[in-house]
Amino acid sequence: MNQSTESHDIEKREDYEQILKEFGISKIDKILPRIGTEHLFFRRRVVFAHRDFDKILDRVEKNKSFAIISGRGPSNDLHFGHLILFDLIRYLQDKYSCQYFLPFSDDEKYVFRKVDTLEGTYKLAIQNAIDIFAIGFKPENVHAYVSSITPRIHYLALTFSINQTYNAVKAALGLTGEENVGTSYYTFIQAAHILQPTVDHDLPVVVPIGLDQDVYMRLTRDISRRRKITLPGSLYIKYLKGLTGGPMSSSIEETCVFLRDEPEVIKKKIMNALTGGRATIKEQRELGANPVICTVFDWFRKYFVEDDEELQKIETGCKSGDLICGLDCKPKLIEKILNYQEGYNRRKKDVIKNIDKYFDHEVDLSVLGSD
Ligand code: SF4
Fold this sequence. Notes:
The protein has 16 helices and seven strands. The chain has helices at 16-22, 32-35, 40-43, 53-61, 83-96, 106-111, 118-133, 151-160, 166-173, 181-201, 214-227, 263-271, 281-287, 295-304, 308-320, 325-353, and strands spanning 26-27, 47-51, 67-69, 99-104, 142-146, 205-209, 233-237. The protein has a seven-stranded mixed beta sheet with strand order 1-2-7-6-3-4-5, with helices on both faces. The relative contact order is 0.14. The structure holds iron/sulfur cluster. The site of iron/sulfur cluster has 13 residues, from helix 14, helix 15 and helix 16. Iron/sulfur cluster is lined by residues 275-277, 289, 291, 294, 296-297, 314, 318, 323, 325, 329.
């Protein structure tokens, strides 16, 4: 399932509790002692809810394995907002030695008319793959594939398509009936991505997603029930806030920092980020600022400041007026991003050399040209 970056403020939705209850999703708190809170994603509830992850833990406690599946619709660039998802997967993979299945869903981009040709998305898929693996994945536990050229996925999608009516898909996805048929059929390709590790390798799966993507999980779970396949579990994550305060979007440059952005561009974007600061330094020193609405603080809390004490100091310094957005916090965030980027660019060189080890099929690196 591909990543969305819509749900960073999900708990503020009026219908938040209602949604969890209605769709049988549980808050993460109850199973946290079994997972542990050493990672900030769990400690700070960046992973805030789950469905059936307790059953996955039951298996883990019996020394049985599972798989993670999370796809990527090939597109221009990965940004820092995507890192939460992929770092979470990397963490789970390291902690539980589980397999990670990564479909590059060029077919989704195609049927939803985000690209003109499937061929054009191949290059993007390979570029995205390099970006994702440079986050720090070990190739031995990764199964990446480009969806449209993977016959097994299309075979499974076809067999699943008889288990759901067009009307059910139309209602679930809010389709009008005017869309091309591929948009509804893609539901089954997605179900095939999710269920293939269970069907072919007898591995129950967990899918990390944003709450707004849950409709696809519900459709897939429905198919699983009808086919008597172990139901896929899910972990629900919050994303980084966009730098302008709303959701982060690749198509709105100023909301995000791309992993390929030049240092000067990164500095400019962060220096322009929305904060909870006051109009003047004098005013901020006197009255303090508001970390709750600050995008810089959000990035610190969810990703860039691991140490709880350091985070607490930032929060206290912000509220007291000891810290000033443009003098203290923003330069600190820029430094952390540039540091990350440096290590990341180094890792990318290794990944390119070994890219075929991550894929379940041959990879044509010549599409990258001299990039
Ligand atoms: S001082 Fe720091 S945490 Fe507080 S509003 Fe400014 S940037 Fe955000």
